[in-house]
Amino acid sequence: MRINVRSTIMGLLLSVPLGVASAQESPCFAELETMTTEDGTEFVRTPDACFENLPDWPYAPEYVIIDGLRQAYVDVGPRDADETILLLHGQPSWSYLYRKMIPVLVEAGHRVIAMDHLGMGRSDKPTDPDYYRYLDHTYRLETFIQALELDDISLFAQDWGSLIGLYVVGLNPDPFRRVILGNGALPVFTETPFELPKNPLMTRQMFHRSMTSIPAKQTAFFDAEGNRIDGQISGDFFGIWIDYARNFKRFKASDIIEAVTFFELSEGEKAAYDAPFPTRIAMGGPRSFPGLANTLVGVTDKAWLGLGTFEKPFLTIWGSNDPGNLGRPEVQQAMIAQVPGPEGWDHVRLPEASHFLQDDQGEEIARRINAFIKASPDAAPR
Questions:
Q1: For residues 334 and 314, what is the distance between their CA atoms, to the nearest angstrom?
Q2: Catalytic-labelled residue, pool 159, 274, 359, 360
Q3: Tell me: the pLDDT tens digits for 122-180?
Q4: How far apart are CA 11 and CA 19, in angstroms?
Q5: CATH number of the structural domain spanning residue 272
Q6: Residue 382 belongs to a domain
Q7: Is the bond preceding residue 200 a cis peptide, omega within 30 degrees?
Q8: For the chain, what is the domain count?
């Protein structure tokens, strides 16, 4: 059997708890063990103890096994509901991001499924960041939909959930009845888009300081016309973000989510976002996602063209105070222009919402989704 020396060394270096707590102080760490699939993929599984008593998260997990690895999800509401809503999160979040939306959607009578991407949430976590590949994520989503026999789906996708979900919609639109998009896109690249920093030790520290210095309740990054306010954080930092997420020792999910939510997170909510990653060895998924952008040259072209023929209802709901690339008004407008389905719908930019708009305005987003579904009965089941 061939031994991946790089992966083994990384595992030894990163098998320490996040933060300052020792292994003995962490109720999850003692239960964590490295496992191996039949094809030799090493992974860890976050113990159930890490997810106990999370605020506003009463949902029991369910699992689908794909290639020997568990894909986690929650499935709430009547299984025979007329409408099935699939929620896809981004990075470094997990389905907990949808805790404010799920009750409002279920109260309207819908079946709601929130899936955790591989390496995130309660899904299994291969330990080598190089294991994670974009087309494997899209393959797993397609397999997940088939395994649950989902059809006539209303999809809500954000951040990397949109890059994965829109790819599947573009190439295989049949299972989807509607799409709702929030701060997301399906980019098309003809060349590698993001240059990595030449002095990463310096830029990692600078990026960390900039993220952790954003007030818990955000100030405005843009004026009323959508122009970036001078002196505020620049949106041209994705190459630095790729390196930071992959390599910075103190990278924590809650630091990033706190930075790009409009409203302050409670200590319990921050702990919930960190719950999937009790040790650094569990963080291969969130560390890998940003770098996948540089692997998309020529990969998404056909799916993008496919979206150009998607005539079913398509709605965009944006957080307007998102300082990143996906928050820009021109990204939202590009999606509206590409997809035939958006015509006639009320596309909005929510003022008190940032990149993780589900956390900031979850109830309002869910109400808009309910209204969108009610207003589009012509999107009849096939």
A1: 13
A2: 159
A3: 999 999 999 999 999 999 999 999 999 999 999 999 999 999 999 999 999 999 999 99
A4: 17
A5: 3.40.50.1820
A6: no
A7: no
A8: 1
